Amino acid sequence: MTEHNSQRIRQPRPAEPVPRGSCVPEFDSMKTAAVAGTTLAYHEEGQGEPVVFVHGGISDSRTWTLQLPAIGASYRGISLSRRYARPNDDIPPGVDDQMLPHVEDLAAFLRSVQAVPAHLVGNSWGAFICLLTAIRHPEVVRTLVLEEPPVLPLFTSAPPQVAELLRLLFRNPGTALAIITFGARTMNPAQKAFRVGDDDKAMRIFARGVFGRQACQRLPESRQQQMLQNLSTLRAQMLGAGFPPLADSDVRGMRMPALLVNGQHSPGWLARLTDRLESCCPT
Questions:
Q1: Which single residue of 17, 158, 228, 265 could bond 242 by disulfide (Cβ 3.0 to 4.6 Å)?
Q2: Is 1 inside any structural domain?
Q3: What number of other Cβ atoms are within 10 A of residue 204's Cβ?
Q4: In 3D, which of 210, 263, 212, 268 has the Cα closest to residue 234?
Q5: pTM, rounded to two decimals
Q6: What is the mean pLDDT of residues 147-169?
Q7: pLDDT tens digits, residue range 252-273?
Q8: Which has more confidence, 65 or 283?
Q9: SS3 category, 231
Q10: How many domains, the chain?
């Protein structure tokens, strides 16, 4: 890729990035970095230009178990467990897990471990964090690989207002209906389940809406356990204030190459979000 250029690929989507098995690294083998008043755990393998993997929600650095050795053969591969993700300290009860603190964490982490500028690879919520890091701290980012970042703020505020949805329905009815359906079938029922204390039900609803029904049925036991171990972060995000604002102009101002990835069998609303992000990326 050349500078000011974005590319888009579609790939068959596994249940969620990679299967786990006996190759899952033990948490006690992780390094740690002191960042912004907390400690973040990470794995590191190889030498060269830094490639930093940032996981999504209800997960941790184990998301990248198989990718890290492959990248470490040619680069300095780093997989980070974000704030509140295992094995880091859990989120305190009642705290809102907002995205912008994770952006500042990531920029500070890259500087702390001398990985600037880095190739950032992010999945889902982690991809959105990587995108915002590139916008707010461009000096720490060399390139971006973003898998299905949930860039809903490019369409509406979060949570969306009725007037915004009506305007979107007039301009782009397919996208508006996809967002409304996701809210009605996934966000609202999951939030309701969390509020009444049925966290397991909330997780199942959310996973089905994000991964797709068939992918959920194929989730390996290790991935299900990883989700359960990080469920408190999903609760905090779902019951919190929502995503930070993101404007088309923010994305157009980026000056580093970006590769956008979405799954061939992912829910359609995710592809629509990636389409919109692609249209905003510099060409």
A1: 158
A2: no
A3: 15
A4: 210
A5: 0.90
A6: 89
A7: 999 999 999 998 888 888 999 9
A8: 65
A9: helix
A10: 1
Residue 207 sits in which domain range?
6-280
Q: H or E element: which one contains 202?
A: helix 199-211
Per DSSP, the residues of 133-193 read HHHH-GGGEEEEEEE----GGGTS-SSPPHHHHHHHHHH-HHHHHHHHHHIIIIIHHHHHH
Output Rg (C-alpha) for the chain, integer angstroms.
Answer: 18
On whether the CB atoms of residues 206 and 182 are closer than 8 A, the answer is no
Alpha-carbon gap, residue 257 to 8, rounded angstroms? 11
Average pLDDT of the residues of the chain: 89
CA distance 219 to 230: 16
* Residue 35 identity: V
Indicate which CATH number applies to the domain containing 11: 3.40.50.1820
In a domain, 176, yes or no: yes
The three-state secondary structure class of 278 is helix
Residue 85 domain-assigned (yes or no): yes
The encoded tokens of residue 244 equal: 């930070």
- Indicate the pLDDT class of residue 24, thresholds 50, 70 and 90: very low
- The reply to whether 165 falls in a domain is yes
Q: What angle do CA 115, 119, 123 make, to 5 degrees?
A: 115
Close Cβ partners of 229 (under 8 Å, ≥ 6 residues apart): 60, 86
